[in-house]
Task: inverse folding
């Protein structure tokens, strides 16, 4: 049986086109993966901002100082149980204070933002919580 | 020669189709992701407005609503989103401020961004 040169060319053509078609589906796969991770983080951020103690921790964190003045270990424990590499910051739209930052090399960073309007008897402030995962 | 020419045409057309589908899928992906994220922002805004109302005494409630409304609208503007929030006292609201609470207001949000356009009237429960 002799395979013609044109048959080999056609085979290569089909193979090449099939590989190219696969590339087309990569964005769809990324979308589904990102959607799942985003949903996870957003749900976690949602549950955190519904907790009054956490809201007070955010409110009482001094954004002008670089050092953390609150104890964030409870949040750190929760995040450690869920993610290896994560990011958490608080901002009042002008100053951003990073509480936990992603470390090492990573390809993607998915971040969700939550607005929080918090106050006690003497003080009120509008802050934004950013929670993200790096992988 | 004819065979090679037809193969080149097939390759070119297929490459073009693959490129168009690829670009289109990337655009759809981005639109969907942004719309998805902004839908969460919208519910976050409504939650915070309601939380503010529920935790405020009668004499403070209107002042706090004004502050949160301005803060949210400014935040949205920085993100190139228009969030028009209206919090209007119902005609049936009590005149005695100490009796005023979140149930005596009508809430609407008009949210316009590149990816999401929503007009929503909502209640705080």
Result:
């Amino acid at each position: 049986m002799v395979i013609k040169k044109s048959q080999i060319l056609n085979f290569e053509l089909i193979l090449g086109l099939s590989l190219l078609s696969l590339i087309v589906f990569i964005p769809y796969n990324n979308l589904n993966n990102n959607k799942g991770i985003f949903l996870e983080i957003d749900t976690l951020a949602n549950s955190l901002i519904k907790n009054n103690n956490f809201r007070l921790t955010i409110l009482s964190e001094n954004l002008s100082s670089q050092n953390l003045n609150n104890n964030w270990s409870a949040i750190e424990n929760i995040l450690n149980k869920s993610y290896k590499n994560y990011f958490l910051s608080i901002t009042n739209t002008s100053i951003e204070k990073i509480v936990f930052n992603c470390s090492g090399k990573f390809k993607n960073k998915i971040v969700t933002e939550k607005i929080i309007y918090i106050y006690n008897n003497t003080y009120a402030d509008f802050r934004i919580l950013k929670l993200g995962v790096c992988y | 020669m004819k065979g090679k020419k037809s193969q080149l045409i097939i390759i070119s057309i297929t490459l073009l189709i693959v490129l168009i589908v690829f670009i289109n899928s990337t655009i759809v992906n981005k639109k969907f992701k942004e719309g998805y994220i902004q839908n969460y922002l919208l519910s976050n805004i409504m939650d915070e407005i309601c939380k503010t109302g529920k935790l405020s005494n009668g004499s403070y409630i209107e002042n706090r609503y004004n502050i949160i409304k301005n803060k949210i609208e400014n935040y949205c503007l920085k993100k190139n989103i228009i969030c028009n929030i209206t919090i209007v006292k119902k005609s049936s609201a009590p005149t005695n401020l100490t009796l005023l609470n979140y149930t005596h207001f009508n809430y609407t949000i008009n949210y316009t961004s590149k990816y999401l356009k929503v007009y929503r009237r909502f209640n705080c429960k």
Q: What stands out?
A: The beta strands of chain B are 82-89, 105-112, 117-122. Helices of chain B lie at 2-54, 58-78.
